[in-house]
Design brief:
about 375 residues, alpha+beta, 8-stranded antiparallel beta sheet, 26 strands
Length: about 375
Amino acid sequence: MKSKSIKGKSAAAIQQELQNSIADGFTPTVAIVFMSVKQDRKAICQIMDAKNIAVFGATSCGEFINGYETEGEIAILLLELAKEHYSILFENMKDGDMDNAVSKLANNALKQFSNPSLIICGPGINQKGEHFEGEKLVKSLEKKLGADKLFFGGMAGDDWELKETFLFTNTKESNYGIIALALNGDKIAMNGMAVTGWKPMGISRTVTKSDDKILYEIDGKSAVDLYLKYLGKADKLTEKEFKIFEDLAIEYPFIVERDTNETVIKTPTRIDREANALIMDNPMPVGTKFWFSQPPEFDIVEEVIEKAAQLKTELSTEVDALLIFSCGGRKPILGPLVTDENEGLAKLWNTPMAGFFTYGEFGRVLNGRQNFHGGACCWVTLKEKV
């Protein structure tokens, strides 16, 4: 498999970049496209159509390739891959029936290949205008495919507008769908992991009163009061101070315990003043165990690179391409370090790379099971087997 990454500020720029990339005889068959909702998706698909290139596309909250990171533009990983080794699958969830859409997609993947591996993207926003519950998608897909099957990816973004995200192929598009690049796992090796880097602080806490994403009580105390105390704000927030809370919340998420001896990041998104409750980005059922998190430190990035280096040593092989699905929240928290993180992974694997900032990530922690993540850097390599 050969690969190249290209970028551009417009469809016209991408057309020129594509022409330059194929001048040496490179013949891509797949374009993995990450782009701003402000860009012309139809034009990009038409450009790829003209070269008989299949499109796997998602809108983003910022996009990047080797040596270049931006917002509002287009990043593409081009793959020269034998057509019998892949299939692009797309299902619309307009009727709200996620299980049915996931079932169709999984069945199609299993029909195509006896051992499929998937690059997958889901919607970032659901039909109610809320964060899509990626955990439900992962559980449903794992059930349909089998626990041993690999899939990595992320939830589409919309430049932090939090209004409408899109997934698209050459001929289809949806603001509430699911797309997968299904690969023949017997011919294409897929390896990767999800890493958050956040560390717990103090004792574990327990949710004692909640309703789906509405968190009322922690350890029998007001969730709002306890969280504000944790943030160093003992009194109620005024309207003017609430903006400070919004900025802090994304930097101080909850580290939630899973029943798999793993954790997941969940974040308060706002305070419901009438209910005196925290509104979370994902459900926090009664009985959930979690920790408040320590302030983010520089070693978050070091942990990502070190774990990737550990896996590379174990695999003892070069790779053909790299994809990175990085939580949109990592950029404001880590600042320039998030660029170091993405570039560090690209340099470590020494291969063409493309990625985007997401509203949630799909993948496995090192030696872990398939899961949905928030606040993570999730990366995956592709290698054609000899």
